[in-house]
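Repro case for the chain-ordering regression, as requested:
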Amino acid sequence: MSPVEERIAAIWREILGPDLAPEAAIGVEDDFFALGGTSLQAMALVQRLREEFGIPLGLSAVVADATLGGVGAAVTSGGGAVRS
Amino acid sequence: MADLPEYAAEPPRRACAFDEYRLARGSVLDLLRPALRDALAAARTPPAAVDTVLFATESLPGGDASQTAVAALLDELGMRNAYPLALGLADCSTATAALAVAAALVTSGAARTVAVASGDLVRTAEPGSRVLLGGAAVGSDGAAAAVVSGRRYGWEVVGGARQVCYDLVGPGPAAERLQAQLMTYQELFRGLWSATGLTPGDVSAVLSSNLAADVLQAFLGEAGFAPRQLYQDNVGRIAHCLGSDPLINLTDRTKAGTTRSAYPVVALLGSSAAHLAAVLLRAVEE
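-- result from build under test --
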């Protein structure tokens, strides 16, 4: 898992909160909606990703491929990187 | 918001911007009466000149009681020549769609002066809870009205568009719903630009339904609007007055001091889960 994906997985945990078991591992194939994410939580996710990575990510980027790998690719292709 | 049971344990996300909602003690007619009176005064239109009234509401009393109540209301306002019609079924987009219908009636010659009256009580139109659209809106009681005629005054109706997605009526998987909502918004605006020849960049303000601020920014961002183009001041102040938000926002933005010359083209946008309606208005030079 890349540093960007690791950071995104942590944000998923923040947003999905009690809907996600603390010990559950999130892999690159896991889908945000399959993990219980709602449409409102998807919007919150996009907002958090914009803040975290400083990129103008669109909602459609998350809807098109909601796997961790897919969202990570959208963030990376938009110029997002983990700040050191 | 603190007295809403849904938010007692978990307040709405800060990005929603919800703060207060409005609760009417009286009937929907008590909301519609001043809205119509103020609209007629603002349009400098004698009440007797109105030949048609489009009621965009789902809160009128049922059966004959609605006829009696509407007759008394129009009589009291001096609108004795107004033929009343009710529009509904399109949730919070009905009133915005009604504006385009009113303009079409006038353009076709089927009517000369049309009043559009929008108003609802949440307890009647959305019984059960004020937290709507899965938390994307908090319902308020409110009303608004407009007068549409062939006289060039106030705002000119440039064009309108409507869109419905029946897959969004009722529940469904979140991912599919979100995809369908995005497409519905994009189709709506494609229709609006096609009808008017304008683009998102030509619109100085989108006066929309008062949905959660972050939700609307997400949908309208995909349709090509920047956050600065969205008027969201009323989300916190009055929450979601069902179909009346766009007209209330138009009035309040003007009252707040933003002159029409500063934003010559505005878009009214009425949104519900499955129905969307938009109308472009251009300021008429005074």
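Ordering looks correct now. The domain at 3-77 of chain A is CATH 1.10.1200.10 (Non-ribosomal Peptide Synthetase Peptidyl Carrier Protein; Chain A).
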